[in-house]
Amino acid sequence: MKRFIKARNQTNRQIRLIVANSRFFHILGRVAIYVSLISAGFVFLYPILVMLSSSFKDIYDISNSAVNWVPSKLTFENYTRAFQVLGGWKVVLQTVGIMLAVAVTQTIMSALIAYGFAKYDFWGKKFFFALMIATFILPQQITFLPKYVMFHSYGMQGTVWPLLLQVLMGQGMKNALFILIYYQFFRMTPKSLDEAAAIDGAGRLRIFALINMRMATPATVVVFVFSFVWNWNETYTTASYFGDKLTTLPIALEKFKKTYEMMFPASSNPLLDINEGITMAGTLISIIPLILLYVIVERRLIESIDKSGITGE
Amino acid sequence: MKRTTKDKVAGLLFILPWIIGFLAFTLLPFAQTIQFSMSSVRFLADGISTSFVGIKNFTDVLMVDPDFKLQIPVFLKDMFFFVPMVLVFSIILSVLLNAKIRGRRMFRAVYFLPVVLMSGPVITNLVNMQATTLRGASSFFVYEFIAKHFPEALSMPILYIFDNVILFLWFSGVPILIFLSGLQKTDQSVYEAARVDGASAWQQFWKITMANIKPFIFLNAIYIIVEVSNSALNPFITLIKDSMFDGKQGFGFAAAATWIYFGMILLAVLAAWFLLGRGEKEPKGKPEKRRKKR
Questions:
Q1: What per-residue confidence (pLDDT) applies to B246?
Q2: For a disulfide at A245, which of A108, A158, A179, B133, Cβ 3.0-4.6 Å?
Q3: Into how many domains does chain B fold?
Q4: Which residue of B101, B117, B131 is in closest CB contact with A287?
Q5: Could you tell me the CATH number of the domain that includes residue B218?
Q6: Measured between beta carbons, which residues in chain A are less than 8 angstroms from residue B169?
Q7: Is there a contact between B121 and A235 if contact means CB atoms under 8 Å apart?
Q8: Does A139 sit within 8 Å of B33, measured CB to CB?
Q9: Which of A41, A233, A290 sits opposite B110 (nearest CB)?
Q10: Quick one: DSSP state of residue A66?
Q11: pLDDT at position A66, please?
Q12: What residues does each domain of chain A span?
């Protein structure tokens, strides 16, 4: 009996040890996960922090290697000057306006096209669908040259028409992806609802707009945000289509140094020369609208990406 | 009968804009680039004039032009180091994010932020500012030590990781999201069963987690290859852009360079398929179901 109790105590102790051990490792694992996630988060944000820090530094702080992260005195001079170089409110409003028009058009047209693919059967559907997917891997450089010549010869250079016409016909930036997202979504919505509405006398466009589009809100959020962001961030083709007549914030940022040197000629005052602080302030100004958009839609966007089947299924 | 015909017409009407757009803005330009690549193209006031030159443009790009050749090793380096590293980092981060932890949403939001911000000029400015390498990384003791004491074949890749870690992470926003959704679809009872059978966390990771996200690895590899090769940081893209409106080289040269580059990207995608995608008949299918049947 005594031996039995002793043995039982021993096993109990062993079990307790194992439990304590596993709890210890559990906590250790937790700590490790948090440490890695936080340091990865820091690395993600690092470039933005560098931008923020340098954009508030004046010329003395930048050349002073003792000043690392925190400037010795905050200067807003960089921002006012960078804003001026980027083109001021005119360019900001122009960019937002153009990109809104492009993104709204692209979203609506992608939905319409995807709806046709998802809900109707017609001759050549599989063929067209395969073609549509194939355009996804075609780099835009391949078709850009002739398109540029075409729009140029139509006298559309310097207007928004090259961008608008392309999205109007479902051939905008990464359009195949947007159509695919809507396609996946429309296929999940039940057909019985459409049939019920049709019996009640609703026309095809009404069924599309009032039933399917309303149910496809997650897809709309994803498509609209990405269309806006990707069109906003595209500079090369947009700059070629726009020529000298129109500009967007990222395009202005690309020409930042040149514009700056024209506005503030180098000879006048070495203190006014372009420096890292001003460049970083300009970069930051050009992404502030995107950050604002992201902050507003972030929660819905990430939820919607999960729901909209962007990741297959 | 009548209704189905009407339906067919309606369906075609829905995608009609796409068909017209495809012909005008994809197929026609596509054919024209082929023609351009084999012609000498000149810009005139009222349009362009082309004259057939055969494969001269292609040989110019590959043999005569001094820059294009020089960029090929850079491209290979990107494909052999950059793409796999982005994959590795996104797998690690998505597995970590998949653990039940507080503030998961916040981490996800931060990790996804670069996808929204990354444009050509922004990233170029950041790289020029050296904001994409951890400042002072080169003064880290470890960095110095590796640079000095390791054989070059070994130290080169390690230092490469040090220099580019921020870019790896900035490119992994979308892949993380895709991996995460793959992980969340994994059946939790499989892990329980493995634990009962005494599988260690290490074994669980390789045998269950990795097996489940394998199809997504292929998908992401393609995504990253396309993204990296079209990014503004890519020397080929800069080269093609610069030569387009260059009077000396011109459209024909740029078109030929684009085709060659497109061929290289396709080769990379093919290599990814060879390494990762083989045997997966439908990469977007439901891996967990198939696995259960075995």
A1: 66
A2: A158
A3: 1
A4: B117
A5: 1.10.3720.10
A6: 40, 43-44
A7: yes
A8: no
A9: A41
A10: T
A11: 64
A12: 2-55, 79-307
* Encoded amino acid at A180, one letter: L
CA angle at B97 for the pair B199 and B214, rounded to the nearest 5°: 60
Residue B188 belongs to domain spanning = 38-293
The answer to whether residue A73 neighbours chain B at the CB level (below 8 Å) is no
Q: What are phi and psi of B279, to 5 degrees?
A: 85, -10
pLDDT tens for A110-139 read: 999 999 998 888 888 899 999 988 888 787
Contact residues on chain B for A311, CB-CB shorter than 8 A: 177-178, 181-182, 216
Considering CB atoms only, which of A44, A146, A251 is closest to B113? Answer: A44
Q: Match 């839609």 to its residue by tokens.
A: A297
- Asked if B122 and A287 count as a contact pair (C-beta separation under 8 A), the reply is yes
Asked if the structure places residue B12 within a domain, the reply is: no
- Residues 6 or more apart in contact with residue A170 via CB below 8 angstroms: A109, A110, A113, A179, B17, B18, B21, B22
Q: Which helix (H) or strand (E) holds B44?
A: strand B39-44
Q: Among all residues of chain A, which has the CA nearest to that of B26? A: A143
CB contact under 8 A, A109 and B17: yes
Residues B126, B249: Cα–Cα separation, whole Å: 30
| Superfamily per CATH, domain A79-307 | MetI-like (1.10.3720.10)
* CB < 8 Å from B in window 35-64 of A: 36-37, 40-41, 43-48, 50-51, 54
Within a domain: residue B270?
A: yes
DSSP secondary structure letters along A70-99: S-SS---HHHHHHHHHHTHHHHHHHHHHHH
Is the Cβ pair A44, B20 closer than 8 Å? no
A205 within 8 A of B10, measured Cβ to Cβ: no
Residue B279 gets the label, from left (phi > 0), alpha (psi -120 to 50) or beta, of left
Q: Which of B119, B162, B178 to mutate to test the interface with A (most CBs of A within 10 A)?
A: B119
Q: Is A233 on the interface with B (CB under 8 A)?
A: yes
Residues linked to residue B39 through DSSP beta bridges, in sequence order: B52
pLDDT digits (tens, 9 = 90+) for A28-51: 888 888 888 888 888 888 888 888
CA A6 to chain centre: 66
Provide φ and ψ at B43, rounded to 5°.
-85, 120
Q: Rounded to an integer, what is the distance from CA A240 to the centroid of its chain?
A: 22
Answer yes or no: is B31 within a domain. Answer: no
Closest residue in A to B108 (Cα–Cα) = A302
| B284 belongs to a structural domain | yes
The reply to whether residue A116 touches residue B13, judged by beta carbons under 8 angstroms, is yes
pLDDT at residue number B294: 35
